[in-house]
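User: Please fill in residues for this 305-position structure.
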């Protein structure tokens, strides 16, 4: 028997659109007990009725695909799958499932894949390297998709996350489909907006490195995705406006849409409870229920025991 633990992730981090992600201390846990044939699933936690409990489950699809690509048949397993990661809320639930599926293959095939191989297979299921990378590696990760011959993989740099910066999540009571939120983005943007984002994406890495936390609210500003996504759901724009009110909320460093939403993420050095209350208040004022969570950064990434 083996256990796989994969962290949630938040991606984009404001201006670092499709380039940067952060692993969070919410986890997908999969217990694997090999069987002679077929898969049996037991689902628990945040996994809703919309998640299939049969062999169409994403974890099993991924494991079988990797086995087929590598011409190494796998027999089957009894999987107990428990998740703390809210579904379709911009917290990398699908990326964690993909990394878990590849890990299931590794356990059943008795094979350890390289990082490049893992990302190459993972990208067959989704394009979000900024979620896949922190789910595997943990911490703050910059990820770039690279093409070599007929395959694609990720080049990544993992960086330490400052212990001083705490995470507050506001998870509203509605889902946001990533494909719909992607479709809301313009097909072309102006050069000034591109430069605006490049400057702030670079500033985020420099601010983290030099512990210039006072620069985070500016580094999280964005012109490529948040202005187009925030109006599509109630409360997002209201919470995002906290970036313009940093001085009014002690301890707050900045806010952003987590991934494609609907979760909003705040970075703080203090007063997390008050910040969570304010984020929740703004969602409720927009007519939306909301739960708030304090999270830590997961620096371990995927663990297989």
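Assistant: Residues filled in for all 305 positions:
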């Amino acid at each position: 028997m083996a256990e796989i633990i994969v962290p949630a992730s938040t991606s984009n981090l404001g201006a670092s659109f499709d380039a940067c992600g952060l692993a969070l201390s919410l986890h997908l846990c999969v217990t694997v007990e090999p069987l002679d044939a077929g898969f049996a699933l037991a689902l628990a936690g945040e996994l809703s009725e919309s998640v299939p409990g049969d062999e169409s489950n994403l974890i099993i699809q991924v494991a079988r695909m990797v086995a087929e690509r590598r011409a190494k048949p796998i027999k089957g397993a009894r999987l107990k799958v428990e998740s703390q990661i809210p579904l379709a809320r911009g917290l990398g639930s699908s990326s964690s499932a993909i990394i878990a599926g590849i890990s299931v293959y590794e356990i059943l095939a008795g094979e350890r894949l390289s990082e490049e191989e893992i990302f190459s297979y993972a990208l067959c299921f989704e394009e979000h390297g900024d979620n896949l990378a922190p789910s595997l590696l943990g911490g703050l990760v910059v990820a770039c998709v690279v093409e070599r011959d007929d395959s694609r993989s990720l080049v990544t740099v993992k960086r330490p996350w400052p212990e001083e910066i705490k995470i507050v999540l506001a998870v509203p009571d509605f889902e946001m489909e990533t494909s719909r939120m992607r479709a809301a983005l313009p097909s072309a943007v102006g050069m000034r907006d591109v430069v605006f984002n490049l400057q702030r994406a670079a500033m985020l890495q420099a601010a983290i490195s030099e512990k210039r936390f006072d620069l985070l609210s500016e580094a999280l500003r964005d012109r490529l995705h948040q202005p187009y996504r925030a109006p599509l759901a109630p409360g997002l724009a209201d919470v995002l406006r906290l970036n313009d009110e940093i001085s009014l909320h002690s301890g707050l460093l900045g806010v952003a849409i987590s991934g494609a939403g609907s979760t909003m993420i705040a970075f703080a050095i203090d007063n997390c409870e008050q910040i969570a209350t304010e984020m929740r208040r703004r969602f409720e004022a927009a007519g939306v229920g909301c739960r708030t969570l304090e999270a830590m950064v997961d620096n371990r990434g995927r663990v297989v025991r």
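For context: The two ends are 9 Å apart (CA to CA).
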